[in-house]
Amino acid sequence: MGCQCQVLVLSGSAGLAEQGERYVRELEDRWTRFSADSELSRFNARAGGWVSISPELSVLLWRGLAGFRLSGGLFNPFLGSQIREVGYDRDFADLDTASVKEAIGPDQSGARAQGMVQQPLQFRRNRRVARIAGGLEFDSGGIGKGLGAALVVEHLIRAGAAGAMVSLGGDVGVGGSWPDTGWRIGIEDPTGRNDQPMNVVLRDGAICTSGILKRRWRETSGSVSHHILDPATGKSLAGSDVVAASAIARQGWRAEVFTKMAIIGGSRVANEIVRRNSGVALLVWDRSGSVSTIQ
Known about the structure:
By secondary structure, the protein is an alpha+beta fold. It contains seven helices and 14 strands.
């Protein structure tokens, strides 16, 4: 997952936390695009053909397609080749990272038209056989952590845990029982400010965070790129009035999708997300570093 992972379990048999850790590693082994031997990489390598897939890859692909449709293409997980072209072709720890200060510039956003492949991904046989359109690659990075955290929580509850909290790089899923009044989740300010600490209390569901300020690197040309791509250009997002967002939703994959929609679409889209989806709340950071709550 390229991040710090945390698994907390309430009650249940001994060894459940370790079982959760093993499942995180299994998901990483299947979903990572940084290994040519992963199931996802082998699936992408056979673009245009039907491929038998595991239940774990099936749910990743299915939810990614659902997010693509839900967002009208603002969230686009089919830009795997484009993310490699901007330099994110290996684990982030191996990249020449760039500072947060280089991230914040003038808002260069505006109306964007999304070019969309009509059938980027198809399924058959109860979603155990899939085909990605030729020329496309599925990128797990935009949805994998939020979805993965939720899957591990479900796995632990089925295994007998009374409750569980799983954090994969700060994308958090909780389920079952909770301690005290709920799971208290701290949100690190992505702009680096210390004067606006934030905590949320979750009893069920997920909170996920994305932004253009953290995963940044220098390309060989010296230019700075980040991992959120503009689906209209296939390049790192050039500007938006939102530089980071956290979304609270009942499902981890939806929370991931909503954060990307808010960043790429800006504050207008962020407000529309909350208006159209009951039970969803957003925290959004603008280019001045100020945070606003939309609920």
